[in-house]
Queue: 4 jobs
Job 1
Amino acid sequence: MTLPPNRYCLDDRWLAPGEAVFAPTSSLVTAGEGWFETLRVQDGRPMTLKAHLDRLTRSVAAGLGPESALSASIAAQRCVETMMPVFDEFPCGRLRLLLALDAAGDRWQALGEWGPHIPSPSSLETGVTAVTASLPHPGLGPLGKSTSYHWSIVARREALAQGAGEALLVRDGCLLEGATSALVWCRGGRWSSSDSPAVLPSVTLATLRETGVAIDAGELRSDDLTPGAAAPIEGLVLVSALRLAVAVCSADGTVLPTERSLRVAADWRAKLLAHHRSGSP
């Protein structure tokens, strides 16, 4: 199936194909300075839009201060409002927001990228494979949504080159998250995720907890996924804005228990979609 090309909106107007966006002297081009969020648009409405914009504002505030963050937030909302009329174009879409200062450094620009999102049936039905990235997790915390995202891109490409669907990121011997997802594991019948300050808090994980899903804070060591581990896990699930929740069927070639993970991931996807369809922002 041939997908339609992505379209782009800058601030409050749609761009023509091939139209230049940011000036060569802007901070995005010269220094890679900017911030972004990626959202799933379901049934014509972005999922957890407010929470994603709030996280974007906090991330800018951590880097440039609250006054700049407020201006960035206004720019992002203006761009989304312009794009709203097309969000019913696809049953499921992908919205990516990119914020950067203009060439003078005194005005925020917001670029919105819009296109379809088609979930992979195989990942939902059988899960995905994962590999541990060779690069360590950078520990950026609230700055994790800056456009200095090379560590995640490199890890993701490394995983794809090995035929895997996700890269797992390690810092100080602990598995913190996936390259594009939060990492949730089951041990002793309870689900947990890292609460390390090195990790940018996941909006989708927070939304799951709002629906009543019990997910504790915990620590997962990288050797917990190896055969014969002293405290083996009973399931592993990736949680993200686009895929919502998918099971991990193997990590670094080790087959993981998947029956529970597949069942739980399907239940979590249903809960997230029901939460969205209830009208929650």
Job 2
Amino acid sequence: MNSKESSVFSKRGLRQNRILQLLENNSAMSNYDLCNELSCSEATIRNDLRELDKRGLIYRTRGGASKLTESNTNPLDDFSMLFRVNSNTVLKQAIADYIFDSGLIQPNQSIAIDIGSTCYLAAKSISKCSFPLNVATNSLNIANLMVENANIHLALAGGIYYPEVDAFDPTNSLNLFSNMFFDYYFMGANGISKTSGVTCTMQDPISRAPVKRLLMAHSRSTVLLCDHTKINKTYMQGICSFSELNMIITDDACSAEEKELLLDTGVKVIFVPVK
């Protein structure tokens, strides 16, 4: 590497300094989020993270990076929910708190909770309920939250566990959920857009779409939990159109254009204030 490339004032140096600032503010971020923040390719981000990791300035994870701490030397952290939860945490937490604080969930209802970091935080709030509740999920981390509360009757899909996405294999999930019916299905997504509806990535070791679609079909109301950073994003795997949703809960940090997109869907939208 020549002196021009290694200079902190070079394009690469400025970009890497920005990565360090973002990780300091967010604790952890995915390659995708870093690409969006820095308007560059994933290959560029991977090269930057590789170099910063080699210099001992960050900790690389599967699909992203986190700031260097005393606790992130365990390679199993690559698969932890902590990584995803620590990205856009304030936005996701506002959505999670609303679900329980608003009184949306009532005693003795049956709810299904999707995998993903926003759904995990929502489950964390729901798990504090003081009334009887039936909960179904295919997320091990969410199940671990629920078993701590004696008021909650838990249905957990078993089978082969994939820690990369915190989910059990779709076959067992489909078999269990096919005979269950729910008041609410709280669903997550990687992206939503006007032209493609709700989408998710196909880079995971298992396909999420079949389980999502089954739970939608077996629920009276499907509620999409989606912070505003997912708006105007499209991924390869289509999940559903907006007409198949009953409610969208997002944060109020949306731009005017993003709010207009959501309101034009015809779906009830809750814009939760971010503290």
Job 3
Amino acid sequence: MGLSKVVFLDRDGTLNKDEGYVHKVEDFELLPGVIQGLQLLKQDYLFFIITNQSGIGKKYYTEEEFREFNNRVILELKKNDIEIENTYFCPHVVEDNCVCRKPKTKFIQEITSIYDIDLENSWMIGDHPSDILFGMNAGCKTIYLLTGHGEKHFEELDENNIKPTYIARSFMEAAHFIKDLNSPNTYKKSSK
């Protein structure tokens, strides 16, 4: 068996709708194209969710509420034959200066201690600059999504000299970019 390729996924604003500190199961809604996009990639990639959940540290919701909501995400994907290998979450606030909050790579280290992963040919997809930094720090390719909080934080990419591999307007566009880039056909980069 060779090395596995992975798509590391942010959760809120990347997979599901995020109006801010989303945690109530009744508010759960997958974003358009997420299922189709993951189905497009699942033959070639393993999927992990890596998410900062400072709402736990801020006492906006409990770890149990986080897990209930996350189980709902996992279940919905599973119904569509999409397997999430595992979910890693940081419950801390920024001020805690913990070792697990993205863009720190503690969770990548944990994952690579269990799985043989080809990080160079793996991807991080997220809607925050910290997701892109996380992927870069881990040695992955990165896609910045303009869904979720993506539009709001877009300027921060330039301000902080953060350069994603690609910027996508939707999850489906991100999935097609990854798929096309790895297809034997010549990939033509869309003009921006």
Job 4
Amino acid sequence: MLLNQTKSDNILKLKEISKLSAGHPFRGKIPEVKNSGVIAIQMKNLSIDSGIDWNSCVETEVTSKRGFKCLKEGDILFTARGDNNFAVTIDKTPDNKQVVAAPQFHVLSSIHEDVMPEYLAWLLNQKHCQRYFQREAAGSLTKSLRIKTLEDTPITVPSLKKQKTIVKLSNTLKQEQKILKQIIHNGEITMNAIANDLFASERETVKEKN
């Protein structure tokens, strides 16, 4: 079924274009079990800027009578707990590994064919959706966004052509921000080196006077 995009952008609920599920219900700390073939993604393994750091993910053991849901390319991870709710697209998975999400995530899968996962993740991270999440989040100390609330998120779906343009612009901006951060970092290293040289010269001058 194609979304009607002949006149204007569609405004739908998230549940109309994607299937939502909870992360795997690990109890307590996720155990590290090497060579298990199963990788767990936790909150500390990803960021809105860099995506998923696969090298920091641990292999673990999943025991469940009902089995477990494996993540795949094109799925979206959404951080459901805490003050910072954001979405990250899974653009690839490690070879010969099964991947599961920690319980702090909601998983968006089976995304409609007329919706790019990268566009959907980008949209969920924008101010309009973020204000909705902040308003609807439950809990006073540790906030949590329920799946039902996420399912009802209003989503604007433009044409695929427009989605591709937005994703391209977003990726370009991220790359520019990455380069800018590296330039700033290199500049700080240079200034620190200059300062160290100045202090070293001052110490040598003091020694000579003594």
